[in-house]
Amino acid sequence: VASQCILGKHTFSAKKQYCANICLKINVKLGGMNSFINPSQMPFITLCPTIIMGADITHRDQNTGRPSIAAVTASMDAKASRYAAAIRVQTGKQEVIGDLAEMVKELLKTFYQTCGRKPERILFYRSGVSEGQFSIVLENEIKAMKAACKSLDEKYKPTITFVVVQKRHHTRFFPTDIKNGDRTGNCLPGTVVEATIIHPFEFNFYLKSHPSSLHETSRPAHYHVLLDENRFNADSLQTLTYNLCYIFARCTRAISIVPPVYYAHLVCARAKFHSSGENWSDLDTPEGAGSASYAAVKADLLKVMYFI
């Protein structure tokens, strides 16, 4: 049964904006679509069946041996507005998603059941990877994705683009002229930096996709393309990534990172509450707490955005 929790203190003096935000969540939990972008703005997705995936891993108190939680989300339609999820619990401190092949396989099946066609292209956004881990993640996770496709059909070989998304960095940008900034003095949404400070010969760029808050310097997202079988040019990938940031289901504004990755992060955050026999908030939990069991999310819920 789909559910939505609401704080009682907000219901007694419910404001219009609060009610609207709750309705955005309820709509997608029931399988609805809040917004989408004109297909002409996303030709990569609309010209042929394309699935967009986002992946993240949450590590829980690495010194206590508690398990890590991996999540992958994937778009389910040609408008890239509705997403399904797959979750796994794996060994703590492990940066590579151990069961990625089965997770991708599940999501490809869900895409086919929803659309009636196999995706011919995969755009995979991966969060939580540092530069030193690029090679090991690329080698293992690309192999797992191709194995998942092959297990469905020996001849099924969609083209894959693998992009790492990084938010934990210390790079900031400021407009050289105050007239070119927003009211807070930050760069305008849609600002892309693809020269001078980036890697000299690899495909990477910084993108500031969200409006600035009132009292802070905005942090751009760093996108680093590790594999590109879809032969993106810089403009097409940057534009697609920026446009996707406008269709996050929780709000009606652009967000700072591409939605599939944000959704994967939300799935990981929700999954920690699926454990039984362990008190996550107890810092004095002894070693071996990672033996807690986890309840599985119902298959029907995985196909709608229950995690919003």
Provide the descriptors you would attach to this structure in a database record.
single chain; about 300 residues; alpha+beta; Nucleotidyltransferase, domain 5; eight-stranded mixed β-sheet; two-stranded antiparallel ribbon; 8 helices; 10 strands; about 20% strand
Question: How would you summarize this macromolecular structure in one to three sentences?
Answer:
With 308 residues, the protein is α+β, with helices and mostly antiparallel strands. The chain has eight helices and ten strands.
Helices and strands, with pairings:
Layout: H1 8-11, H2 16-29, H3 43-46, E1 50-58, E2 68-75, E3 83-90, H4 100-115, E4 121-127, H5 134-152, E5 159-166, E6 191-193, E7 203-208, E8 221-228, H6 234-244, H7 259-271, E9 275-276, E10 293-294, H8 299-302
Parallel strand pairs: 1-4, 4-5
Antiparallel strand pairs: 1-2, 2-3, 5-8, 6-7, 7-8, 9-10
Pfam families: Piwi
Protein name: Piwi domain-containing protein
GO molecular function: nucleic acid binding
